[in-house]
Amino acid sequence: MKTLRKPFILDVEPKQLYSVLKPLVVEEYRIKQIIEWLYVKKVSSFEKFSNLPKDVRGNLESSFYVRSFQNVIKQESILDGTIRYTFKTYDSHYVYAVYLPTESTKSVCISTQIGCPVSCNFCSSGKIKFVRDLSRGEILEQIIHIENDRNERVSGVLFMGMGEPFLNYNNLTSAIESIISKNELNIGKRHITVSSVGIIPAIKNLANAMYGVRFALSLHATDDKQRKKIIPNNFDSKISELLKTCKYYLKKTNSRVTIEYVLLKGFNDTSSDAHRLARLMRTARLIEPSVQVNLIPYNHANKNDYQAPEQVTVLTFKKILKLNGINVNIREAKGLDIGAACGQLGYTAK
Ligand code: SF4
Question: Which of 10, 103, 122, 160 is positioned for an S-S bond with 195, CB 3.0–4.6 A?
Answer without folding.
Answer: 160
